[in-house]
Amino acid sequence: MKAGWKTLPLSKAFWFQEGPGVRKWQFTNSGIKLLNVANIEKNGTLNLAKTDRHLSKEEVESKYSHFLIDDGDLVIASSGISFDEDELLRTRGAFVEAAHLPLCLNTSTIRLKNIEGISDLRFFRFWLDSLEFRSQITRLVTGSAQQNFGPSHLKLLQISLPPIAQQKRIAAILDQAEELRGLRRQALGALDAIVQSIFLEMFGDPAMNSKGWTTLKLGDVIHSAKDGPHVSPAYVEDGIPFLSARHIRRGEVIWADLKFISVEDALVYWRRGKPERGDILYTKGGTTGIAKVIDFDQEIAFWVHIALLKPNHSKVEPRWLENMLNSKYCYQQSQRLTHGIANHDLGLNRMVNIELYLPPLSLQQEFARRVKAIEQLKATHRESLAQLDALFASLQHRAFRGELSP
Predict the structure, then answer these.
(1) Does residue 123 register a pLDDT over 60?
(2) Architecture of domain 214-358
(3) Among 18, 57, 322, 367, which is most exposed with the fewest C-beta within 10 angstroms?
């Protein structure tokens, strides 16, 4: 450890408090907002619109006033968390602002305050993503179907702290890097919104079909829909990228945390249909109903939770079909057709019944031409974001090894 750093029990460096176990029958539709783990988003912000649970002002004043959150508190989720690819748990946290108040803690949420002269909350916010925190909490966490931890676990943690001035400096450096990443994400979101606006301008709201386009089903505009292997393949160190549903997002393939299969195994899987440029990957397991056109030349194979759609190019333009499937109208249909509780599945025989409308092919092609330039710009932004993500990860690693200290 770098000179000047010291290791303390977490309880000696920060004050923390878990919310009370409020029962469902206590919930109201107005009064004091009750914080829920779902309100703490992965991007480090609070979204209080995601839930509508309140407690009456009278009940808070009589029973829970000491659980009222203050401006500047850091709140973290202690349940509803999951393991990353490195098999370590990752939680999420967000700072509370005056605009969020009044706000009351709830079960599975923990708030923290720094101890003056010893610790800095923004340093702690980044420490949550450090190996030191994640490895410790992973060993201590309880639960099988759903992992959770509480103050008793946090009291067993140790934290390595530099002097307070260095904590603030490290937090400021990481804040700047995080801000750049946030701006790049905002730019990508704005470009996505432009594509959606062009789609609505040219074709109207799919749910209304105000332009009176012909209505048909997905199966009417594709040659086939095939999914990947239903048995686990043998993975290799290097070979053909093997995608799962988590790699498919709207308008994007995530090329991180990949597994690979041999060319020989891929050839077997490709007998059902080899992915080609212009085909569409459509998630049928996990997060179902997400479409991504193949606009790259990288050879791939994929797991059972992805369907490969072979569009009929005499009827549909692939880029248009991708956006149609990702519209709210088609996505909602995909959710209704998804079966299963523990294992969600949008079966091949069900997905082909998704209803859509069919504008003239020439108009679809005009849409694709207009969107092409935007997609190229998005690709540039994604590359930049990937570089910023790598820079942030490097800075974070160095920060908690003491390599950013003066």
Answers:
(1) yes
(2) Alpha-Beta Complex (3.90)
(3) 57
